[in-house]
Amino acid sequence: MPANKKLPEVSCDDCYFMRKGLCALELGEPCTTFRPAEANLKPPAQLRLLFYAPGQVEPIWGFPTAAERAALHEAEKQARAAAQERVGKAGGRRRRARSFGGPTLPLEGLPQGV
What does the alpha-carbon distance between residue 60 and residue 56 come to, in Å, rounded to a whole number? Predict the structure, then answer.
């Protein structure tokens, strides 16, 4: 930020917490928990982390945005619902364990009541 550009003056009266009567501090100046009342506690936007290959101008990969994550979550939810529906239509049939027809162990010689 250029040195000659001034930041807007803010006071405790501009803070969301002070306007809602939630502030327990009496500092006389904005504290570190200051949130503009107009923002209704909306946090500031975070920068997106992008990865660039050496010498490249375009990023090769970036973490998904909140909107992209929400869309991915919705697609996964729909896929799970579709899978549940397919299982329901199949009548919930499950495979039974198969016997391999191998020799069985004799029960003679084992203690009774086990």
Answer: 8
Residue type, 21: G
Q: What is the pLDDT of residue 78?
A: 93
Place of tokens 């809602």: 20
Cα dihedral 66, 70, 71, 73 sign: positive
**Mean pLDDT, rounded, of the chain:** 78
State the average pLDDT over residues 93-111.
Answer: 60
pTM for this prediction? 0.37
| Structural domain boundaries in the chain | 8-44, 45-90
Q: Which two tokens stand for residue 14?
A: 């501009």
Q: For residue 66, which of 37, 39, 45 has the smallest C-alpha distance?
A: 45
